[in-house]
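Q: Structure for this?
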Amino acid sequence: MGGWLTRLRSLFNPSRGDRPVLGSAAFRLKYERFRELLSLNDAALQLYADLEDMLASSEAFALDSTLQRTRKAALDVFVMVKNLNQIAGGQYHDLYDAMQRISGQLDAEFLRLRGAAQGPLVVPLARLRASDVPAAGAKMANLGEVASRCGLAVPEGFVISTAAFSRFMAENELWERCERLEGVLETHGPEVLAEACAEVHEAILAAALPQELEAAIEDTFERTFGEEEVLVAMRSSAVGEDAVAASHAGIYYSQLNVPRGEVAAEYRRVIASAFSPVAVAYRLERGLTAGESAMAVGCLRMVEPRAAGIMFSRHPEDLDRDEVMIAATSGVAAGVAAGTEGGSVWTGTLGGRFEGEGTLLSQEDLLRLAAAARTLEAHFRSPQDVEWAIDRGGRLVILQTRPMVPVACEIVENSTLTEGLPLLLEGGAVACPGLGGGPAVVVAGEDDLRGFPSGGVLVARHSSPKFLQVMNRCSAIVTEVGSPTGHMAILAREMGVPALVGVAGALTALAEGEAVTVDARARRIFAGLPADGKAGRRRRPGRADSPAVRALRRIAALVTPLHLTDPAAPEFSPAHCRTLHDITRFVHEKAFEVMFHFGDAAGEDRHNSYRLAAELPIEIRVFDVGGGLAEETYVGHTVPVSAVTSVPMRAFLDGMLDPRHAWRHPRPVSVKGFLSVLGESMAGPPPQAQKLGRLSYAIISDRYLNFSTKAGYHFSTVDSYCGRSTNKNYIHFRFSGGAADAQRRARRIVFLTKVLEALEFRVKAKGEILHARLDKYEEEIIVARLEDLGRITMCARQLDMLMDSDSSPEFFARAFLAGELDKFY
Amino acid sequence: MSDLRLLLVDDEVEFLEPTAARLARRGVKCTAVSSGEDAVRELEAAAFDCAVVDVKMPGMDGLELLRRITRDFPGLPVILLTGHASVELGVKGMELGAFEYLLKPVEFDVLLDTIRRAAAMRSA
């Protein structure tokens, strides 16, 4: 044993002049994996919160950068699982199965979004139907439908499919660069996007067409148009193009009059237009995925038009008006479509006359066009925006049809509801925006959740995922401590309950039973309810059901919901983990359990520790896993208290060394108490006590403390992290064992429960074992509570002897809280 | 004390050679090979304290090599390295008994620290 440690020390005792590494490598490794786990936990929770926010808000987001973050999160959660298993000796191998299951489902979703299309590279237009959008893009699929099902003429031609696009992008390794563009815009703004797009554009134009694709295009061209010297129009046809909510009008590139030899070059240009700055911005704004930029390209015979233009099957200002609007120009209609040319405009009804300017179109032409527009409307079951041409032979040809874009309704948010109500409190962080009011219901413990009234405003010191049980009855939640990235906040967003966390003074300002209104978005709490009685929970307005939102919802379903809320429940197991959040929660909980017993191993290894030279009745050995002791060399493996730089250890020591302790002069005890202790002592201390001997162990780093002690006949463990990030801070305390009789032991637990609850710990006591936790408090509070625990640890040495009546716990709890430590000695 | 003996396995020569040279400068006696098959031959010929293995290699890949090591050379800690981070690979590697799973590009000091720890755990 000593051998490897000696070797290890020399390994860590480098010649490069670093400070000597204190403590043993095993402790350091375990601690660092734990610390990594904690910071990954934070990052994961942040992502879960962000995903929920994206789904809750109507703001645009870059799906692809979100997917990348989600992929990264899955890896992070895997590392958490790995670290937990490494610190717990492989106890949680089942978690790997859960991890693999969820990650497999996520991968399937990612693949689906990437839209790597399969199928023929080139398809004749005549073979396409509306259902062929994934292969041919919306524009060409619709045109195929028009030709085959609506009895209207379309140009001859073929489509270079999305499968061809996928192949082209993959073979030239372009896809990775392209799918990041939305993220570039979101993160770095339009200027950087323009540069990125220019690079991508250049790369696409320089890329070679896969040989098979080039051959397929030439072959189909030949079969469609024969030897004839034709000119074609190359038209974009992206998968997400022409949808109701996302018309893409004019976003992508189309080129007219393309000769046979230029088809491949123009094909690249059309593809490149899918990644122009405007196309990227549009997709981001409209919530489209990069999968929907999968671009098919139509290759259609040019029509020699007498007249051409655009028509709407309904009046664009009012879709309910029974009017068709037709715009036309002589020659090709590109200018009308682009808006650079007005052309002539007519409006009229199917049965009546068309009013308008010019003589380009006869009434007969107009009626024929209007009839075609209505045929398309009837077929596609929505008002249509149609591009058309009448050729020199008088034949009407449909070039494109897509749904008209309805006028967006403006959603008005009513912020006047709280006008006139007296302001009670202001501040905190928004966990879930919204407005809700009702009687304040103070929840101090889980028991208070039972019988929680419908419409109540839940007020608590701490946020807790257990509130989920009553969220469907809450009109709002207010907590004094908590973070918008915490479990409860995420659940509140999921459930749509307006919630504010971190509201200082909420418990004082909000009286039980009093009606209050919470405006979470404004971070304000008012007395009373709005006069109009609209005090109930106000759901957020519905958001656009865009493809990106739908995709995100599918992804988020595997990531953010939390099913594992109660660590005591039998369902709190790897087998019941259904989301990354579940795994995160499980790992987090179990990591603490493991670290709690961190000190157990310390008893086995005295060679890598320092003896703490402190004026204390117990001997403490210190293991430094990083930054817990000042950087000096200590003679004879003894360190002074002044060398302790660990923030939590220092606080704990300050409590133990509190001058009010008069531990040097134990007071005479009542004979009964003394005999009771003596009697138990003669039976011998429990086996752990023998193992630990008289030593206490502290494993420390700059911000971490794991302290195991045997004080008297009690065993206690303090495990704490104390840093600047409130969310990471915690104290876990466990107390057990003892030499006195059962009655005294029970009283001792009552004493500790009273004291610790008064100090805001959450306490669970069972038999003679007590667990207390304090999570997510500010550094100053953690420090103060560690000092308190230091004091308790010293006072506890006397407890068995002091607990000689049923009133003792109450008496000594008051004494302790009043700082009268002398009463314990 | 003698140098730590490391077997470094990666088909990417641009990574293999400079890494081996840097490790050697930090007191790690490094045997560098570029395939799983060569790695097995080295393992049969000499004793090592730790192996660092790239996951993606032609022929015998890193996971297969890990399988062979845990079967034929139990107790030798294996650190997996991968440039293609995936949960599936990670899970497989850890379930097969890898000591650690690191993502490329890996910081040199992190790699060195992990190697030292792996070797120390072996000695324990």
